[in-house]
Amino acid sequence: MRDLQIYKNDFFEVAAKVEDNQILFDVEQVAKCLGITETKNGSEYGRWNRVNSYLPNNSPQVAKGDLIPEPLVYKLAFKLQMKLQNNFKIGWLLKLFHLLERQVHIKVKKLSHYLNTRH
C-alpha cells in the first residue's frame, strides 16, 4: 500500500507515511474513521462529495487511493465535529493523530541528529 504504515487504537485504524517531513494519510481510511461513508452492495465507500465539501475550496478534489496531508485530516475532523456536536469517536481519532504526529517528529528529530553528527 505505497509504503504506508498502519496506526491503530481501540477505535480506529489509519494508514500513513512520512514524505518530505510531512505525514500523509490514506483519505479513504480517514473518511471511514470519521464515518463519512456510504454502503453499497455490502461494501463501505467514502462519500467523496461530502469529504470534498469539508475540505478548503483551494484543496484538490480527493477520492479513493489519494493521500492527504495531516492539516487536511484535522480540517475534516474539526468540520465534522462541529456538525456532530462533539462526537466522542472524533475526539479519539484526533488523539490518535496527535500521537502519530509526536512519533513522526521524534523519528525525524533522531534522523536529523544522526545526519548532523556524522563526519
How many discrete domains? 1
Quaternary form: single chain
As a percent range, the share of strand residues is: 15-25%
Shape: globular
Biggest β-sheet: strands ordered side by side in the sheet: 1-2-3-6
**Roughly how many Å is the radius of gyration?**
16 Å
What's the story with the biggest beta sheet? 4 strands, antiparallel
Query: In terms of per-residue confidence, which ranges show pLDDT below 50 for 5 or more consecutive residues?
Result: none
Residues in helix, %: 40-55%
Counting helices, strands and paired strands, the structural category is: alpha+beta
Please tell me the overall pLDDT.
79
Number of helix segments?
4
The N- and C-terminal alpha carbons lie at a distance of 36 Å
Please give the number of β-strands: 6
Helix/strand order, N-terminal first: EEEHEEHEHH
